Amino acid sequence: MRPHPARPAIAIIDDYQHVSLQAADWSAVSQRADVRVFTQPWRDEDELVQALAPFDIVVPMRERTPFPERVIARLPRLAMIAMTGHRTSTLDVAACAQRGILVANTSANPSSAPAELAFALILACARALPAAFANMARGAWEEGLPMGVPLEGKRLGIVGLGKLGARVARYARAFDMDVVAWSQNLTDEDAAAKGARRVDKAELFATADAVSVHLALSERTRGVVGRAELAAMKDGAIFVNTSRGPLVDEAALIDALRAGRIVAGLDVFDVEPLPAAHPLRALPNVVLTPHLGYVVADTMARFYREAVENILAYLQGAPIRVVKS
Fold first, then answer.
1. How far, in Å, CA of 99 to CA of 151, rounded?
2. Phi-psi category of 84—alpha, beta or left, where left has phi over 0 and alpha has psi -120 to 50?
3. If DSSP codes are grouped into helix, strand and coil, which group holds residue 266?
4. What's the pTM value of the predicted model, to 2 decimals?
5. Which residue of 63, 185, 289, 323 could cross-link 103, Cys pair, CB 3.0 to 4.6 Å?
6. Is the same domain home to 254 and 301?
């Protein structure tokens, strides 16, 4: 563990909604350290490194800013990363350990908020809610709105039946939907215990009226939804991704949307924030949200409260919630 100066400098980064200092009491930290908040995303790694070079402690928000080994190597003053969330795929914990950088985490975000958003996107797509709101906002009525579809009796295909996927399955059953699921390791017994029926991936995409993706991103799952899967979907089917953008072949998804074959609800993207000129922004059959799955007041308050606890424990020489490489 690296030593820190008598009055360290702390950077709270990725605070897009300007909530970090209100979500928790930072007064005890501010008495012992200088705290600065960064609210904008970084244009590139050089800008990130230049901005964070003077800081001893960094508090990132989940996986918004990646910290691979090459970035960590360029921050020789960095002594602690007070990450939010229980795990991250974008922070090289081993590289931190090699350089004596302490990494502390917080408790995990509960599955309820992202699962609720996933089902909200299914509903928004099924009933064309953004288009309906746009009509109302401009003083129109039902002109030009696509016809909505009910969910009752329709089939929901869940890709990844872990905690999040299982919760979405429960929501779907409450809407009297037929629920099927697939993932690499899913068994018939596990699927049945969670209220779904296991099918193979080809059947799921070919027969589902809506598909919702709930997998962690890894080398095994990257691109798990490709051109063949999207092409197999029914005309008018709904595709929802609230997990990670790179799980899906983005170019193939854009092609399917441009063809007008499917409707999509997307909370995650290959590049975040989504560039202003990105083609997804111009498509009428897609509902977009800015990675809001876990972003609710309760979760933010717990993340920042526990980050404060972690920082104070580190400054007192008795670190807690230490992440092992």
1. 53
2. beta
3. strand
4. 0.94
5. 323
6. no
Strand 155-159 to strand 178-182: parallel, antiparallel, or no bridges (unpaired)? parallel
Q: What pLDDT digit, counting tens, does each position of 151-175 carry?
A: 999 999 999 999 999 999 999 999 9
80 forms beta bridges with 57, 102
The answer to whether residues 157 and 235 belong to one domain is yes
Report d(CA 37, CA 20) in Å as an integer. 8
Q: Are 284 and 65 in contact (CB under 8 A)?
A: no
131 phi, psi to nearest 5 deg: -65, -40
Omega of the bond leading into 273 within 30 degrees of 0 (cis): yes
Q: Cβ neighbours of residue 121 under 8 Å, at least 6 residues apart?
A: 240, 242, 265, 266, 267, 287, 289
Q: Tens of pLDDT along 105-135?
A: 999 888 899 999 999 999 999 999 999 999 9
Domain that holds residue 50: 9-109+297-315
Query: With contact defined as beta carbons under 8 Å apart, do 179 and 156 qualify?
Result: yes
